[in-house]
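Quick one, T. Sequence first:
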Amino acid sequence: MSAEPFLPAPTPAPRFGVWLIGARGSVATTAIAGCAAVAAGLHPPTGMVTETADFTSCGLPSLSSLVFGGHDTLDCPLPKRAEHLADSGVLPHGLPSAVHAELVAADREIRPGGPPPGDTGRTQEQWIEVFAADIRDFVHRQGLAGAVVINVASTEPAPTDDALPPSSLYAAAALHAGCPYVNFTPSTGLHHPALAPLADSSGLPYAGRDGKTGQTLLRSVLGPMFVQRALAVRAWSGTNLLGGGDGAALADPAAAAAKNAGKERVLADTLGAAPEGEVHIDDVPALGDWKTAWDHIAFDGFLGARMVLQTTWQGCDSALAAPLVLDLARLTARARQQGLTGPLSGLGFYFKDPVGDGPSSLAEQYTELRRFAGRLRDGADDRGTHR
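Structure tokens:
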């Protein structure tokens, strides 16, 4: 009998890290639990654009290949946080126990965040190195092919001096650790002028800022509609009622102002000028992770006929944001694999205030996203350069 031919063992698929700033928050917990649930076939990938037909052959990392860790100032373990979210209806009942092992594994990789308010024990450069060392250690110990750093922490006020705010310290740490950076919040992050040279010289891709999940998502659809139908918008006002950690953070007027800037920018970009009206954000703790967003749009029709459109969006921010975070992790990790550098303008579809040049209309942004997917598939450039 002839000997069986020698068959080499299959090469294990590479694994990729997702390092979350705010790793024990609602969005991060929902993303980690949701990734495990979808990867195990317990739930469909509803809300994940990267699981649709246009993205199936882009070489994106599989959900099962993602390994989670991060920084946070909170000490509530992820399994307990997931139980709280299930009790409030954000996660399905029974899911925290079904993905308990994955939550425990991710929780082991969460490191203390900072700096605490008023801290003078370390310089900015020292904090950046501490955070970067945590990220590098994560990649090394887990044997990862690379990692993406995504900021999903609570909104911080815009800086009022030259000091780097915490979001910018984390952003700098990501680049120092050799990782692409995604800012899913309206916080400063890489937008700080002091970080521009680092972003330009890092040779890394980055994306942001402020995930577009609810009210602004709708505005990016309705704004172009009024323009395309030649209807004159006279005023556009909005109100947001929300609770949870985001509601508490946005009770700070300075943080709310940072959040509203992106909402108003979408209208100015799509309508050609900012209409009258403001957005108000009210913290209603009883709502928890659920949000109601109301818009009142006054517009003129033919012969000056005055009309009004009112919209109400009721949803769960964490459930809307989590699939987008997973999309961005996969797309950015693949962009890094393909050698793309600089601002990923093709990902503007996901943000209120996208980096790089690109359209403001959601339909046009989706077209750009599909083109970006084609570039990932073909190994071509995305307005940036290959290294």
